[in-house]
Design brief:
The chain is built from eight helices and 13 strands. The chain has 352 residues and is of the alpha+beta class. The chain has two domains: 134 residues, no CATH class; 142 residues, Rieske Iron-sulfur Protein (3-layer Sandwich), CATH 2.102.10.10. A five-stranded antiparallel β-sheet has the order 3-4-5-6-11. A four-stranded antiparallel β-sheet has the order 7-8-9-10, with no helix packed on it. Helix 2 runs antiparallel to helix 3, helix 2 packs parallel to helix 5 and helix 2 runs parallel beside helix 6. The longest helix has 31 residues. The cytochrome bc1 complex is composed of a cytochrome b (QcrB), the Rieske iron-sulfur protein (QcrA) and a diheme cytochrome c (QcrC) subunit. Keywords: 2Fe-2S, Cell membrane, Disulfide bond, Electron transport, Iron, Iron-sulfur, Membrane, Metal-binding, Oxidoreductase, Respiratory chain, Transmembrane, Transmembrane helix, Transport. It is a multi-pass membrane protein.
Length: 352
């Protein structure tokens, strides 16, 4: 094809004469960096009254968060768990759950909304382009980061806007109180309930199997008998809870075989009464060895010597079994002369 046959638009122009042989001229770069658009100032940047209004809005949200946290605590204390309310269109729901969810949700929402409004209206919104750098920061980069941080802190007006700062501190400090209050829902406070059982002075010792009061003659030497307090019945709603602390085992030992003087004094004719609840994790003790007078907990093999104050001679139990002081009533039945002298079962943190 001759040059005369080449379309005119495909012929090199006069501007291409200076280009090296074989190069292609590009008129416009389609991937050129367009740059950042001009920065537009917000009303808060040029009007201090508008900035004050935004500051009050943020502070209002933080204060509302604090009030919601207080309402959460008040609802937890005042509203009974069994109370229900009707909420359209959900229906009947727990008033306590509804109040706790609404107040805690509002407290968290107000902190988030306040922080967002603060950032959008008062903090600097100037876009800054920064060159990418290696992962390992050089000293100059670290100095720049610190300088940028100080500049950002200054532009956020955190130090200047004391109202926002103080209300934010209050809102953030009070929100965790909701979680602390929820710990109260783990169960009723123990108070001194773990230190006392159903045994009292004058309570008859009733055989668990026959449900009849026990006489000294009912307990033979070398035998193990289980007893409960008089008036405690299996059909009672709190039977298991009561017996969890009051379960008693009786054993008759020859008085000359009893080594502990207090044990001998607190028994009757060699009949001694000890808590059936293991002092390790509260398992029921039921295995008795006649020759050694040892009782064994079947759970973790804690072993107690009933002829020597029920002290621990083997296993993980931390202390001896509590003894119940017993005597005989006017009718000839075995009776308690008081409660256990110490808490029964495993140790607990209030025990000291």
């Amino acid at each position: 094809m001759s040059s005369q046959e080449i379309p005119e638009e495909n012929l090199p122009s006069a501007q291409d004469a200076d280009q090296p042989h074989g190069s292609v001229a590009v008129k416009d770069d389609p991937f050129a960096d367009p740059g950042l658009p001009p920065h537009e100032h917000r009303i808060q940047d040029i009007d201090e009254r508008a900035a004050k209004r935004s500051e009050r809005v943020v502070a209002f949200l933080f204060v509302l968060s604090m009030l919601s946290t207080i309402a959460f605590i008040a609802a937890f204390v005042a509203i009974k768990p069994g109370k229900s309310i009707y909420v359209f269109p959900i229906g009947h729901i727990s008033a306590l759950n509804f109040a706790l969810g609404m107040t805690l949700g509002l407290a968290l929402f107000c902190i988030g909304a306040g922080a967002v409004h603060w950032a959008r209206t008062l903090m600097s919104d100037v876009e800054v382009a920064d060159e990418r750098h290696a992962i390992e920061a050089e000293p100059a980069v670290k100095a720049k980061v610190l300088a940028d941080f100080k500049q950002g802190a200054q532009e956020s007006q955190f130090g200047r806007r004391k109202l926002i700062r103080n209300t934010l501190f209050g809102a953030v400090a009070m929100v965790p109180l909701s979680g602390i209050v929820l710990l109260r829902d783990l169960g009723p406070l123990p108070e001194d309930k773990l230190r006392h059982t159903a045994w009292k002075a004058g309570k008859l010792l009733v055989n668990v199997n026959t449900n009849e009061p026990l006489r000294p003659s009912d307990i033979a030497v070398g035998s193990l008998t289980f007893a409960k307090p008089e008036g405690v019945e299996e059909h009672d709603e709190d039977f298991q809870q009561v017996m969890g602390k009051a379960a008693l085992m009786l054993v008759r030992i020859q008085p000359e075989d009893i080594k502990d003087k207090q044990e001998l004094a607190w028994g009757h004719e060699g009949i001694v009464a000890y808590s059936k609840v293991c002092t390790h994790v509260g398992c029921p003790i039921s295995l008795y060895e006649q020759q050694t007078h040892h009782v064994l907990c079947p759970c973790h093999q804690s072993t107690f010597d009933l002829s020597d104050g029920a002290r621990v001679i083997f296993g993980p139990a931390g202390h001896a079994l509590p003894q119940l002081r017993i005597g005989v009533s006017a009718e000839g039945y075995l009776q308690a002369l008081g409660d256990f002298a110490e808490p029964v079962g495993p140790a607990f943190w209030e025990r000291g």
